[in-house]
C-alpha cells in the first residue's frame, strides 16, 4: 500500500477519475489480473486474504470494507463485487461516496450513528494514522464531532446530518478516496518528457557559481595538460599523456586539501566571496576532485606502463619491463630513482582510500575504516614529494594552510576538556546533550561542531549541528539522532549505564542547573530519561553552514525533515531572544510594545518554518520552543506575524481518505474550540500527510515579503524535490551539508 500521505496514490486516483472508456477498460483488466493473484482456486477473496492484501493497520476498516464489498453476504468477495465497489469509489458521485462513508460508520446497520459507534470509528482512525491520544482526548474528539453533527439533539447522527456536516469542509467529498494496496494501483501512465533541468534558465540562475567554478576547473586542467604534454613532444604520445596527467595531478593532489579547510571556509562565508564561490558545496567538489584524481592516476599509470613496455622491447634498453616498473635501478625520478616504486605505492594507497570512502562503507557502521584509511593522505603527500620533482612547489601554500588549520584545531580542541553536564533521551532514539560552554566559544545560529567523547570512541570525531542559540551562555545543546554505530553506542550508553557516567557531585550540579534555569532561556527538559552527569568530551569548531545567510534574507523559508530541525532550532531560539530583547512592558499598566528597529545584521521581514515528521513523538523534541514562539506572537494579527509555523505528520492519512476523514474533522473542530492542536498542543494545526509544495511555494510567492530564500535540512531525496520547485519559482535554495 502507498505510504500514508504518499502522493503516488493520489496521483493515480486523479488519473483514474478522468479516464476515458478505453483507459477504464484497461484499468478493469489490471484489477482483474491482480485479483486473480490474491484470490484462491475458487476465484473469491475471504476476509483474511482481504486484510493481507489491503495492509491496513487496524482490522476495523478491513472488516467494514469487506462487509460493504460483500454485497450478497456470502462471506467472500467475487471479482464482480470488487469491481462494482471500486467503480463506485472511483467514478461515483459525491453522494454515492457519502453513502458508503455513512455505512462504514454505521457499524450496527441501524441507519444512524450513535456516540459509541463514532468513538469506535475515531479510535480506529487514530490507530490507522499512528496518532496516540489519551482516552479523555478521544472522548473530547468524539463529543466535538458528534455535537456538531447532531443538529436535532436526537443522540444519533442521520445520513442527512452527516452530509450537512461534511459540506462544511469544501472539496472533501469530491476528492474522497480510499488508500488501497499496490495490487489495485494501475501502472503510472506515460507522460510527456519534461524539459531537462539543465536546459532551464532557472537552473542556471541558481547554479551560476557552480558552473563558473567547473568551467575554471576544466579550463585549468586543459591548460596544465597541454603545457606539460607539449614540453615532451619529442618523447612520444605515451610520455606526453603521462606528463600531462602528472601535471594535473600536481594541482589536484595539493588543492583537494584546501576544500576541507573548515576554518578558512567559515571565514570566507563572512566575505563577499561567499556570493561568488559555491562554499556550501565544498564536500561535493572535494568528492569530484577525488574522482578526477583516481581517473587521472589510472591514465597516468597506463601511459607509463605503455612507455615502459616500448622501452623494454627496444634493443638499446638494458632494463627489463619489471625493472622499469618496480625498481630504482633505471634511475627514474629525482630522489634516487624512486619514481616507479613510489608510483606503484601511491596507486595502491589511492585505490584503498577510494574504495573505503564509498557510501556503503561510511554508512554501514564502519566509519573507522573510512576515517583511518583517509588519514593515508599524509604518507601519500610524502610519497608524492619523492615521486614528482615539482609537487612540493604545488603543495607549499595549501599544505602550509592545511597544517596550520590542523594545528589550531588540535590545540583548541585539546586545550581543556569540556564536560557533558546533562543528558535527555528523547523519542525516536534522539540524545539531547548539554555541554558546558567554554568562555571563548563564539558561534552563529545554525553552526556545527565536531564532537569527541573518549568514553564512546577515543579517536572518532563526528559533526553535529548546534541546536542552542548563541545567546544561551551557559551550555551548548546538541540533538543527536541514532543512525549509525557511534550514535547508537552513545544513546545506549546513557540508557543502560547511568551509574557509571554520573559524577560524584550530582546533587551540586543539579542545584547549579536549577539556578541557571531560572534565567530566561528555552528549555526542552523532561523528567523521563533525564540525567545529570559529568562526562569528559572535546569539541572542535564552530564551523559555518549555509544557514548563516538566514538573517541576511528578506523572506526565509526554513524546512526541516525529522531531526533536520536542529539548525533551525538554534535560529528560532535566536529569533526568540532577539524578539524578547526588543519587547518592553510598562511596570504600571503592563502594556507591552516592540521597538521598531531591528538588529543591523537582521534583514528578515518574514520567516516560514515547515517541520515534517513521520510520527507524533518526534514533535516532542522542540515543542516547548515552538510554544514559546507562538506565545510571543499571540498579540500580533495573522497578517502581521513575523514567524509562521507549518507542521506536517506524514504517517497521518489525508483528510480525503475514508479511513481518516472523521478524525480530521474532529481534530479541526476541537482545535477551533480549544485554540490548540490535539497532536502537539501548539496553536498551529498539524496537517496530515506531506506538504503540497506547489501550493506552499505559491502562497510564499504571493505574500511578496521580499526575495525568497529556502533553507533545507533533511534527506537528499526531499532535497532534490525542493530544489526543483525552487527553480520553478526562482527561489534561492540552500541545503545543510557537512
Task: Provide an overview of this structure.
It is a single chain. By secondary structure, this protein is α/β, with parallel strands linked by helices. It has 4 domains: 22-183, EF-hand (Recoverin, domain 1, Orthogonal Bundle); 208-412; 416-497 and 529-543, Elongation Factor Tu (Ef-tu), domain 3 (Beta Barrel), CATH 2.40.30; 546-651 and 689-736, Nucleotide-binding domain of ferredoxin-NADP reductase (FNR) module (Rossmann fold, 3-Layer(aba) Sandwich), CATH 3.40.50.80. The chain is built from 28 helices and 14 strands. The chain has a 6-stranded antiparallel beta sheet, sandwiched between helices. Strands 12-11-10-7-13-14 form a 6-stranded parallel beta sheet, with helices on both faces. α7 (115-128) packs across α8.
Brief overview:
With 738 residues, the chain is α/β, with parallel strands linked by helices. 49% of the residues lie in helices and 12% in strands.
What's the SSE blueprint?
Blueprint: H1 7-17, H2 21-38, H3 47-54, H4 59-69, H5 79-91, H6 94-105, H7 115-128, H8 135-149, H9 159-166, H10 201-206, H11 208-230, H12 237-255, H13 262-268, H14 282-313, H15 321-326, H16 339-356, H17 359-362, H18 367-374, H19 377-387, H20 391-414, E1 418-426, E2 430-436, E3 448-452, E4 462-465, E5 475-481, H21 485-496, H22 498-501, H23 506-516, E6 530-543, E7 555-561, H24 566-582, E8 583-585, E9 592-594, E10 606-613, H25 623-632, E11 643-649, H26 661-674, E12 686-688, H27 693-703, E13 708-713, H28 716-729, E14 732-735
GO molecular function: calcium ion binding; superoxide-generating NAD(P)H oxidase activity
Keywords: Calcium, FAD, Flavoprotein, Membrane, Metal-binding, NADP, Oxidoreductase, Transmembrane, Transmembrane helix
GO biological process, one term: defense response
